[in-house]
Amino acid sequence: MEKFQQELTDRFGPLPVAVQELVKAVKLRWLAKQLRLQKVKLKEGTMRCYVPAAQQHASSQEAFNAMLHYVQLNPRKCQLKEVKDQVVLIVQTVSSVEEAQQVLGEMVSLVGTQQMQ
């Protein structure tokens, strides 16, 4: 994505704010996909991450374990809830797409680092 962004800048000059925001949104979606999230919502300083009901693949379980570990590391700003048979990770104090990228990036970095106990 960085390379694509640089090519656009080289070809057309500085990117408009709308394009920059679109690039940020795409990066956020990529991180969410790596964590096998169904959707991510940012609203009023809160990020809600929706986990699909069926976590059948090993990679999905690893991603879910990474999210659990993140919650354990950040208990004051995170909580997991079950809403209508769906798990929702709620993260407080996430007021921008950049902050959401940072949080999801931290979770992605935890994938595969958890040992079964």
Task: Give a summary of the structure in a few sentences.
The chain is 50% helix and 21% strand. With 117 residues, the protein is of the alpha+beta class.
How would you explain this protein's 3D organization?
By secondary structure, the chain is α+β, with helices and mostly antiparallel strands. It has a single domain, classed as Aspartate Aminotransferase, domain 1, CATH 3.90.1150. It has a four-stranded antiparallel sheet, with helices on one face. A hairpin with a 2-residue loop joins strand 1 and strand 2. Helix 2 packs parallel to helix 4 and helix 3 packs across helix 4. The N and C termini lie far apart (37 Å).
Order of helices and strands: HHEEHEEH
Low-confidence stretches: none
CATH level-1 class: Alpha Beta
How many strands, which pairing sense, and closed or not: the largest β-sheet?
4 strands, antiparallel
The percent of residues in helical segments reads 40-55%
- Tally of domains: 1
Strand order of the largest sheet: 1-2-4-3
% residues in beta strands: 15-25%
Work out the radius of gyration: 16 Å
Q: How many separate helices?
A: 4
